[in-house]
Each structure stands twice: as structure tokens, then as C-alpha cells.
Amino acid sequence: MPTMTNAFREAVALAATAQGAYIALHTGTPGTTGAGEASGGSPAYARKQTTWTGGASDGSVVGTEVAFDVPAGTYTHISCWTAASGGTFLWAQAIAGITFPGQGILKISPIFQVPQGA
User: Which residue in 12, 62, 72, 116 has the most C-beta neighbors within 10 A?
Assistant: First the structure.
């Protein structure tokens, strides 16, 4: 694995997050296609747009908090897309499994990080 400077890791993270800013929730592993995206509910689930901001030159770019309307279920992953619907799946990451017994609101502050030695 390569060793990278923090400045380079930050540049990679900024370039990656410039590709898309629509965050989605998943009820299982999205794989490489974005499978298992949440759906349903009243009010209905929908992807939410975040605003990415670099900062400490540490390879991490933080997004603004997004609030999802979610139906009952367990949510295990977030993903990033190029559009509010359809679009291109870019990446996903696991979150702590969060279960809602009924309709609720799930707030997420997404972070994209390029780890040392990635």
C-alpha cells in the first residue's frame, strides 16, 4: 500500500466528493450497484443532498447533516450518488445498524475519508 501525504489524501477526498452529493440509505450491503436502497414511508423516503467541506488536510471531507424520512426497518449503509433519483452510484459505507419500529427521521452527517495507505 502506498504512503500518502495528508495534503494528497485531502486532494483525493475533495476530488471524490466533487463527483456527487446525494446521500442515500440502504437496508443491506449496496455492493457495487447501490442495491437495497430504502423506499416507502409517509412522508416518503428520498435521497438528500449534502454540501461537502474540506478542512484539516487530513484526507477527510465532511458533509452537512441530512435528515431522512424513513419507514420501519433497519438501515445499515449510506451511499453517495450523482443525482436525487437515478444517477450514478459512487460509493457506500457501513453505518451502525439503526432500527426504526415505525416511521421516523434518521439524521446522518456523512464523511468521506481517504485512509493512510489506501
Answer: 62
pTM equals: 0.93
Q: Which of 118, 106, 114, 115 is nearest to 23 (CA)?
A: 106
Between CA 68 and CA 106 the distance in angstroms is 5
Residue 78 gets which letter from DSSP? E
Does some domain include residue 40? yes
Instruction: Examine residue 2 and say whether the peptide bond preceding it is cis (omega within 30 degrees of 0).
Output: no
Cα maximum dimension of the chain: 47
The 10s digit of each residue's pLDDT in 5-33 is 989 999 999 999 999 999 999 999 999 99
Residue 1 lies in a domain: no
Task: Confirm whether 118 is domain-assigned.
Answer: no
Which own/partner pairs from 35-39 qualify as long-range (CB within 8 Å, at least 24 positions apart)?
Answer: 36/77, 37/79, 38/68, 38/70, 38/71, 38/73, 38/75, 39/71
Q: Is residue 79 part of a domain?
A: yes
Q: Which amino acid is at 34?
A: G
| pLDDT at res. 2 | 75
Structural domain containing residue 22: 6-113
